[in-house]
Structure formats: C-alpha cells, structure tokens
Specification:
CATH topology: N-terminal domain of TfIIb
CATH class: Mainly Beta
Bound molecules: zinc ion
CATH superfamily: Ribosomal protein S27
Number of helices: 0
Largest sheet: 3 strands, antiparallel
Helix content: under 10%
Radius of gyration: 10 Å
Distance between the termini: 18 Å
CATH architecture: Single Sheet
Number of domains: 1
Structural class: mainly beta
Amino acid sequence: MTRAPAPFWIVKCPDCSTEQTIFSRPSTTVNCSVCGATLATPTGGQAKLRGEFVRPVSA
Ligand SMILES: [Zn+2]
C-alpha cells in the first residue's frame, strides 16, 4: 500500500499493536498513547514511521 498524501494515517504501535490515528506531517515526535513507544518522527515533511503503516485517513 502506498503512503498516500492523506492528512492523517492510521499506524500500528510496534510494541503493543494499538492502532492510532496520527498526523502525517508532525512537527514533533508522535508517541503511542498506550505504551509510550515512538510511532513517528518528524522530518519536515511526511513523518518517518517506526510503527506499521495501516492505512491513510482522508477526513
Ligand atoms: Zn504502544
């Protein structure tokens, strides 16, 4: 699946498998709300994911 340029992505935590919706272009590191693991890090553009990309969210 391609990482479509959607405003939000659903990402699965690599540590606890929780699926979370995150902003695709974050300005700060995104952490799992359950276990605190890093899900995505900012790059200035689209986030670099540590978690597993599930699907884009268009709305
Ligand atoms: Zn987690």
